[in-house]
Amino acid sequence: MAVNRIRELEDLFVPLLQQCETLADVKKIHGCIIKHRLSQSNFLVTKMVDACDKAGAMAYANRLFKGVIDPNVFLYNSIIRAYTHHSMYNDAVGVYKLMLKNPESENPVVPDRFTFPFVIKSCAGLGFYELGKQVHGHLFKFRPKFHVVTKNALIDMYTKFDDVVNAHRVFDEMYERDVISWNSLVSGYARLGQMRKARALFCTMPDKTIVSWTAMISGYTKIGSYVDAVDIFRQMQIAGIGPDEISVISVLPSCAHLGALELGKWIHRYSERKGFLKQTGVCNALIEMYSKCGVISQAIQLFDQMHEKDVISWSTMISGFANHGNACEAIETFREMQRTNVTPNGITFLGLLSACAHAGLWKEGLRYFKMMRQDYKIGPVVEHYGCLVDVLARAGQMGRALEIARTMPMNPDSKIWGSLLSACRTHGNLEVALIAMDHLLELEPDDTGNYVLLSNIYADLGMWEGVSGIRKLIRSKSMKKMPGCSLIEVNNVVEEFVARDHNKPYWREICFVLEMFSMHQNVIKNGDLSEIMAGYGNEDLDHGIPAFHE
Q1: 544 in the Ramachandran plot: left (φ > 0), alpha (ψ -120 to 50) or beta?
Q2: CA–CA separation, 147 vs 195, rounded Å?
Q3: What sign does the dihedral 388-393-396-399 (CA atoms) show?
């Protein structure tokens, strides 16, 4: 009878605890529970811990847990789950260790299938790979009933540790998988840039969700396969899955790099219709896309319409102005950013330095570099030094630029020496060009462009022996120049053209139109069509397609 009476009282408190929204509510009911001498009830304390979890009162949840003399597995699971929900991973792991402390006791507490998902997530959150593997080993020791959530947690943990081998092993061992299982593994491969494996897995998925498609888009964008990213985005639409904010943010950088303006505009209209423009991240990605596609006016309009601007918004707009050569606007945007008390970051100063480089403002560039270090305590990385060298070199301050390159705390990369070499041609400085070339020969000995640039410097200075020597060196190394390529968007499809690649569809027709343009220009210039037409043989004209030479 006593047991039944206790159960009735416990059942009485359960709906009251489920209605609790604040810690004060929990405390009131806790007082009643104590009054009825039920403070050692695992069932009720578990419900109170759940209520504290919902109210965010983890200190009180901890007090409740520690007040129970003999907690059972349900109470242990509840407090571990609550700690994990609030990213208190150390505490969650600590409770798990406490749970295993007395395995030889009369009634040991054994973790079950509801324990492991949250412990595994805590190991991943802490970045403790070895601990995670130990917990995985506990699954074989305690052998809880199969739970797909536990297996998914293991896959997620291993992918976060960049261990896709073990993640895939767990996946292969599962006799039951859900869409989370597939998405976790696809996302793991995509995040590591292993897109062939990600694509193979993606293609065999029985059910694809927006998460699946977005993982692929993001993965392709990350490794620079922008055409593939846009292609997956289009396939997603054909499959009838509408993009969300994350997929939009993932594909817009690819649009920017490809110059796919029409697709970018469609995404803008779609985002506006769906209310995505309330998300700062979506607006930032659109601003970058418009800037890189050459429509700076649209980027400015979107930037001005934003209700909330973060440091990325300001930095993106500054970089956009810099890329368009609008140094004054970039500097003024930075000043406005300072007035709104948004703290700049390293990307902000990269944009500023780039703006100064394009406008030849080398004194301002030095001042902003000093401001970054002294006022904002931002440690410059190789990209900042590269920008500073470019600022000075473009402005003709070759000695200063060389000194920065030689004294910077890290080894200059090929981009830095390349910018110096390029500036040497502009300013006719052979001495610095030879120094830069020596370093480039070590960093990228097979880059034909560097040899050609040095050859051009010799030619500009009338030093033909130097030109001849460079050309002989290129021939002796059997080096070939990388073919140039260009991209164009036609009917919302990005087409890539590579020099001397005659395998594109409609290649002959394209050559015909280009030759017609060339003929038209010659007519405008020379005014005599008959002389121009005489340059084409009858065979060419009969064929209908003049020979086009690249």
Answers
A1: left
A2: 29
A3: positive
CATH architecture of 381-484: Alpha Horseshoe (1.25)
Element (H, E) at 497: strand 493-498
Radius of gyration of the chain (CA): 33
Please report, for residues 4, 45, 302, 474, the alpha-carbon distance to residue 68 in angstroms, rounded to integers and kept in the order given: 21, 8, 57, 81
What pLDDT sits at residue 185? 96
User: CB under 8 Å to 105, separation ≥6 — which residues?
Assistant: none
Cβ(382)–Cβ(412) below 8 Å: yes
424-441 confidence digits (pLDDT tens): 999 999 999 999 999 998
Q: Which two tokens stand for residue 449?
A: 């462009």
Helices (H), 259-279: 261-274
Within 477-528, residue ranges assigned H as helices are 507-526
| Domain limits, the chain | 309-378, 381-484, 502-543
Q: Is 420 helix (H, G, I), strand (E, B) or coil?
A: helix
Tell whether the torsion through CA atoms of 365, 370, 375 and 381 is positive or negative: positive
pLDDT at 246: 96
Phi and psi at 218, nearest 5°, equal -65, -40
How high is the pLDDT of residue 541? 42
CB count, 10 Å around CB of 361?
Answer: 21
Contact at 8 Å (CB) between 136 and 163? no
Half-sphere exposure of 135 (CA within 13 A, CB side): 30
- How many Cα atoms within 13 Å fall on the side-chain side of residue 31? 5
b/e 100-127 (16+ beta carbons within 10 angstroms → b): eeeeeeeeebebbbbbbbbbbbbbbbee
Query: To which H or E segment does residue 490 belong?
Result: strand 485-490
Give the model's pLDDT for residue 532.
47
In whole angstroms, how far apart are CA 42 and each of 37, 72, 74, 404? 13, 7, 8, 68
Residues of the chain with pLDDT under 50: 1, 532, 537-550
pTM reported for the whole predicted model: 0.80
Residue 47, judged by CB atoms within 10 A of its CB (0-12, 13-18, 19+), counts as buried
Q: At what angle do helices 73-85 and 58-66 cross, to 10 degrees?
A: 160
Cα–Cα dist 370/472, whole Å = 45
- CA-based nearest residue to 400, from 429, 371, 425, 373: 429
Q: Give, to the nearest 10 degrees, the angle between helix 346-359 and helix 311-323.
A: 20
